[in-house]
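User: Show me a protein chain along with its predicted structure.
Assistant: Here is one chain, sequence first, then structure tokens.
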Amino acid sequence: MPISWRLRSATLTTQDHTLIMGVVNVTPDSFSERRSLVAGSGMVHIDAAIARGLRLYEQGADVVDVGGQSTRPGSRAVSTEEELARTESVVAGLTTLGVTVSIDTSRPRVAAAAIAAGAEVVNDVTALRQPEMAELCAGAGVGVVLMHMQGTPETMQLDPRYGEVVAEVAAELEALAGAAMQAGVAADRICVDPGIGFGKTLDHNLALLTGLERIGATGFPVLVGTSRKGFLGKILERAGYPAEAADRDPATGASVALAIAHGASVVRVHNVTDVLQSARTADAIVRHGHD
């Protein structure tokens, strides 16, 4: 069944295909941009980041997600000023070129600057828990992504524990969506993300991916981000085919196809060209006989 997701000035729909969110990480330790977007001193190459975002959009991304703060396991926060310096001009440059942009941040100041620069979505790994962020998103009428995370990026992988991970994550996402709506965010602007790799073991991640229908039962579009993540590395290592993050696109494609089969509405990826083939193939198989 097609799902619509209303953004600030547009509405995205899964009527024709699963939505693709392309990643532009303007951080020194990103999975894919560290050489081209960040200089040796840590300075962001704004033009290179804009060019990458535009390329992802032209390759088929429905949304380009710009982030200036790493959320990898063990990562530490940079200052708000540094995050602003990394992202504000990139968002402005992309929106000027007609790209639909999401800002990946948990800081209200960074989100506000991105919205002023034309961002359509706020992708918050802390799920609008800050009242100021919820108020900002409600007032601006942007689309939001509410992600589940146990702990913080610095601590989340130390010892994640759940009783029944799928049920618990689904219940918490429902509660987070309810809080966002109480703060004024419209229900049709909300997308939920089970937070693959964010405070989860390999088994937790696999359970969530095979249990996405329960997440989808919340009634909101479901975003899944598996791209190049550590759990894929563990799977490949156990199978005897170890691969660094940048070499995990085939594994990413497999996880994307299966996520779509289990009900994902949006997939967030680094390599749009290759993964789009996996997504479109999965779409054709899953939708066959249902059009």
